Amino acid sequence: MSQTRIKRLSPIFTGLMASLLIYAMDSTIFSTAMKNIVSDLGGKAYYAWPFTSYLLCSTIAIPISGTISDLRGHKPVFLCGIALFLAGSSLCGLSGNMPELILFRALQGTGGGVIVAGVFTIIADLFPPAERGKYTGIVSSMYDLANLIGPVTGGFLSDRFGWRWIFYLNLPIGVFAFIALFFTLPDDRQIIKQKTDLSGMIVLALILFPVLTSLSLAGTVLPWNSPWIVGMAVFAFLMLLIFILLQHRVKSPIFPSEYFTDRRINMALALSFFNQMSLIGAVVYLPYFEQNILKMSATGSGLVLAPMMVSLVLAANIVGRLISRTNQYRIWSLIGFCLIGFSMWRFSVMDKSTGYSVLILNAVLMGWGVGMNMPVGNVNAQNSVSKCRIGSVTSAVTLFRNIGTATGSAFFGTVLTARNVIGWEISGVSRVFQVGIAVALLGILSSSFLRDAKLPES
């Protein structure tokens, strides 16, 4: 890449990374301050709903914003996403009670969904297919930076200045990103006569809302076989059938049928789902093991997660560059899931005598495996479609990652607490990691069927 082009793209790239950072850091920084928030605002019974409302709205916004941006321009939609996120952050900081916070978190989540879908779409706009892997890997490192600095930053701001400052922190970073992208990002707005698939968007929301709500409640607030959970599942399935029928009848569908018939795309969606499930299992239950079995402090368990995140960043960057050089995807995903499965097995056999060095080694292997998969799903899917569908397919990959997070949280939580499941006596965190091996095997299967995308001309 020429020096002139590097100088031209630097402010754009910085703006994209800054916007993704505030999105990625939100969940980690928010969770550390939640205890102080509840003490101040009350509403302990609604403890989970600020998380749930954010996840619901961000996940629903991802595919909808991707489709709209393909029709109306990636830049204006992305800037609207930043503006919504900042507006939501400001209002969250001004919340006077828990219902207000839940509502404003929903607004913030809507903007966050637009941001996370738009970042990788714009990367695909800026760079030719041969370079997308490299820069997708670099930008993805913002997730891991957020995991490293988010909890510390959230705790510090909440204890020193009050919990409202965890939201106000987004404002200077977000305003910088907005201004940088407003003046430097090329305007790709196109005049397209096709109408936005409004009916498809409404039905998609009616699918995702009950699915994500039931995953948030099942196994904790309500049992999996409760009438409410079963009812939401049946309703979501009926809406899915309607959605499929609608998508066949519109000229600009949210999810074209080839997304689910083309193995370059559908397997990219599947491996992204299983990779995210694996990550949430490690991030949540490795500290659980350390604190409850090894009796480590929260700080000590965090120091084990840090090397895992560092290895994840390195793996994502290295594999992203290798993809750009070799145009091979499947091999890296296969190796990544093999490492995940091996790490899950290593986690499952740990006990009270496990040493600190063994913990770190296992965590590093896990991070490396997850990181290897990070660029694969996005880049393989993006290089499998025409430029007019970059936003849509990128949003689809991101959507499946989000659903993987929600599914992993609910499923592993149930595994941890359930008993007598198909004859098993499940009572320990080691069972979570044993089930994690099965998730990794499903990832290996998905990767085996993945078809490498041929490098397009542009």
UniProtKB/TrEMBL annotation:
Pfam families named in the record: MFS_1
Coiled-coil stretches are: none
Molecular function in Gene Ontology: transmembrane transporter activity
Indicate whether Membrane appears among the record's keywords: yes
Residue ranges of every copy of the Major facilitator superfamily (MFS) profile domain listed in the record: 12-455
- Keywords for this protein: Cell membrane, Membrane, Transmembrane, Transmembrane helix, Transport
Q: Which CDD domains match?
A: MFS_Azr1_MDR_like (cd17502)
Q: Which residues cross the membrane?
A: 12-34, 46-65, 77-96, 102-123, 135-153, 165-186, 198-222, 228-246, 267-288, 300-319, 331-349, 355-376, 388-412, 432-450
Q: Which domain of life is it from?
A: Bacteria
Q: How does it sit in the membrane?
A: Multi-pass membrane protein
The cross-references to Gene3D superfamilies, in alphabetical order and at most eight, read: MFS general substrate transporter like domains, Multidrug resistance protein D
Subcellular location(s): the record lists: Cell membrane
Query: Per the record, GO CC terms?
Result: plasma membrane
Plastid among keywords: no
PROSITE patterns, alphabetized: MFS
Q: Which PANTHER family match?
A: COMD, MAJOR FACILITATOR SUPERFAMILY
Give the protein's recorded name.
Multidrug resistance protein 3
- Give the organism the record lists: Caproicibacter fermentans
Q: Which gene encodes it?
A: bmr3
